[in-house]
């Protein structure tokens, strides 16, 4: 052992990994218990497994069992389809008759990401599935998952989780300047990709469009599915009205599924996920009547039902989920009274409770939660002449103290009717409407709360078109992409210094 190299000698190869030395470095990491080096080798192989399996298959079949297992477990293994991953595992097991590893390795194939015809083919004709009760059970589990379409968000597991390189910002629907409602679903994807059609702003790529164009709708994420609910649609006559329809987007297959419609038509409302349910709060109906009603959606039953209503009709309010509660702020009543109230819904008690009100009334604003603080941003109020005024200052609410604070930072420009999303302690206020110009906006403002005491508001990249009534969220990026989120997370003037 006196002549054995010290483990620190092997720090430098982390940048030197290649197809020539990765196996040797993996053996070194295993021998000297170097987790950082082992992780780097796994990451390298995750990125290059497709190349290895297609052009150097003999080498792929010689991979050590533990290394192959860690690669199969990675969410970032996107270079192969799940059917290709299954075929590689089978070939590896058959090579040198390594069937003692069958039970473990086949657990890491994500059968829920395969389509139904592929699963039926495995069940009916593959010898491994027919000879292994575990394999047969896993395929049957995936078929059952696909057959229970509406309950899929509640049945997420390691075998249905999408493989992806990163989360990214999605935008759905909205209202363009020429009043048309938008069907498009786009995601932030600044790196050029050959697999998707890029149109409009080069930072945004299109995916399968919604069944119906809509604006002033709501989105919510459950089980890595995006639910799109309600909103305003435009009929062939040019007339617009609120709708009750809803649909669900699955990023695993870039496909939409229509789900049960709400009991009431709603636009300018709030939607949130609490436990296994979606909750829709208030809004305006197809007759432009302001609603007090609240209803919840059960994916398992694909059904909506009314729950405890608000104590008054409310629309154009904002809301978010925090601490397993649904919070709602501001809005306007059916008597055109602007509100500064903060209300919270407890699903266990099916009860609404009042909390300390905001300093200022707001409508058409947004609200988001970061580290047990609620933030309200944008919107407008009325002055003493009943004229609308922009609200640029930001207020934060401490859930533990039931106390509001006016923040020292403000939005750079006023935004109304915007979308909002949160990721990595940053709040994204997307698109909207300017009451100064009476025009929709193409800007994204980012409130960076990631460093306490160094909070900052800056402009992110622009949207592909100006739009108000847009909805947004973060979801896994399509498996064939790796969006660089730097321009979403850092002001443009500081990108070069990061």
Q: How would you explain this protein's 3D organization?
A:
- There is one protein chain.
- The chain has 2 domains: 7-109, Serine Threonine Protein Phosphatase 5, Tetratricopeptide repeat; 167-497, Neuraminidase (6 Propeller).
- It has 498 residues and is an alpha+beta fold.
- 40% of the residues are buried.
- The radius of gyration is 26 Å and the shape is globular.
- Helix content is 19%, strand content 28%.
- The protein has helices at 22-32, 35-55, 57-60, 65-73, 82-94, 102-105, 116-125, 127-131, 133-147, 486-489, and strands at 167-172, 185-188, 204-207, 218-222, 225-229, 232-234, 240-242, 246-250, 255-259, 270-274, 277-281, 294-298, 303-307, 318-322, 325-329, 342-346, 351-355, 366-370, 373-377, 380-382, 388-390, 393-398, 403-410, 419-423, 426-430, 433-434, 439-440, 444-448, 456-459, 471-476.
- The strands form 9 sheets. Strands 3-2-1-30 form a 4-stranded antiparallel beta sheet, with no helix packed on it.
- It starts with 21 loop residues before the first helix and ends in a 9-residue tail after the last helix.
- Helix 1 packs antiparallel against helix 2 and helix 2 (35-55) crosses helix 4.
- It contains 10 helices and 30 strands.
């Amino acid at each position: 052992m006196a002549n054995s190299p010290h483990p620190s000698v092997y720090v430098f190869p982390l940048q030197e990994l290649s197809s020539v030395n990765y196996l040797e470095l993996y053996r070194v990491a295993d021998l000297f218990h170097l987790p950082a080096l082992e992780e780097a080798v796994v990451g390298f192989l995750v990125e290059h497994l497709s190349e290895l399996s297609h052009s150097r298959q003999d080498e792929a079949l010689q991979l050590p069992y533990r290394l192959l297992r860690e690669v199969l477990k990675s969410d970032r293994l996107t270079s192969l389809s799940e059917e290709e991953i299954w075929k590689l595992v089978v070939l590896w097991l058959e090579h040198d008759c390594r069937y003692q590893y069958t039970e473990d390795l086949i657990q890491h194939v994500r059968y829920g990401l395969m389509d139904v015809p592929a699963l039926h083919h495995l069940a009916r004709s593959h010898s491994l599935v027919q000879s292994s009760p575990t394999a047969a059970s896993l395929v049957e589990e995936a078929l059952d998952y696909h057959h229970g379409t509406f309950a899929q968000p509640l049945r997420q597991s390691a075998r249905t989780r999408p493989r992806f390189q990163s989360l990214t910002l999605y935008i759905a629907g909205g209202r363009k300047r020429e009043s048309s409602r938008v069907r498009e679903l786009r995601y932030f994807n600044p790196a050029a990709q050959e697999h998707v059609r890029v149109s409009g702003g080069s930072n945004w790529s299109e995916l399968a469009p919604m069944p119906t164009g809509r604006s002033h709708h709501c989105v919510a994420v459950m089980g890595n599915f995006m639910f799109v609910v309600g909103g305003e649609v435009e009929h062939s006559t040019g007339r617009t009205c609120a709708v009750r329809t809803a649909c669900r987007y699955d990023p695993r297959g870039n496909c939409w599924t229509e789900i049960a419609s709400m009991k009431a038509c709603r636009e300018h409302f709030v939607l949130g996920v609490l436990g296994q349910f979606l909750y829709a709060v208030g809004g305006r109906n197809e007759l432009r009547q302001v609603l007090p009603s609240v209803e919840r959606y059960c994916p398992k039953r694909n059904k909506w039902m009314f729950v405890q209503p608000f104590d008054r009709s409310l629309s154009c309010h904002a809301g978010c989920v925090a601490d397993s509660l649904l919070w709602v702020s501001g809005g306007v009543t059916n008597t055109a009274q602007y509100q500064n109230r903060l209300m919270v819904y407890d699903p266990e008690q099916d009860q609404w409770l009042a909390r300390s009100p905001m300093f200022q009334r707001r409508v058409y604003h947004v609200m988001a939660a970061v580290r047990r603080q609620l933030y309200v941003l944008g919107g407008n109020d009325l002055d003493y002449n009943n004229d609308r005024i922009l609200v640029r200052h930001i207020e934060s609410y401490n859930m533990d103290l039931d106390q509001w604070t006016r923040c020292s930072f403000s939005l750079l420009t006023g935004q109304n009717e915007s979308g909002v999303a949160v990721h990595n302690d940053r709040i994204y206020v997307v698109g909207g409407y300017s009451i100064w110009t009476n025009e929709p906006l193409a800007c994204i403002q980012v409130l960076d709360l990631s460093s306490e005491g160094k909070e900052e508001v800056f402009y992110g990249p622009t949207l592909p078109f100006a739009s108000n009534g847009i909805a947004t969220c973060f979801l896994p990026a399509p498996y064939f992409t790796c969006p660089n989120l730097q321009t979403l997370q850092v002001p443009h003037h500081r990108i070069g210094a990061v």
